[in-house]
Amino acid sequence: RKSKITASRKLLLKSLMLAKAKEEWDQEILDKQAEKERYLSERIAPLHTSGLSLSQLQDLCKELHEKVEIVDEERYDIEAKCNHNTREIKDLKIKVLDLRGKFKRPPLRRVRVSADAMLRALLGSKHKVSMDLRANLKSVKKEDTEKERPVEVGDWRKNVEAMSGMEGRKKMFDAAKSPTGQ
To answer: C-alpha angle 157/160/165, rounded to 5°?
Structure first.
């Protein structure tokens, strides 16, 4: 489907919208600065230090320090309340999820754990003995297995001719039935 607006018209409209948004953004920043200055001028009286003696300046500094301490205490109290509220909100969210019963289970991965590591996890750091499971396995001699199976060497063509047809199937069936195998 073709658009009713051409690409150049779209680009022009987009650039006009961005220019208008930038103007509004700049105006908003100026308004915030003016509001901040107005608020500070209402709350804070101008500081006149000219013509004051040394003792009067020291008294003024002490008053300012006391005010700073009071504001700092209030800030600390508010911060502590905020942290307490965020912790409480987090706990309540967890409780809601538990009550609903629908919470995401994390995907579990298979982890290979050795016997020593498993015993260490179960018994704690008290476990010092290493457990070698391979030491208890029965050893098998390779020579014995080779002696048990004698290798027949013969003409393979005779064997194929003998086993072909129904007679060969009967011989194989009889060979499987016999206790010696051949």
So the answer is: 145
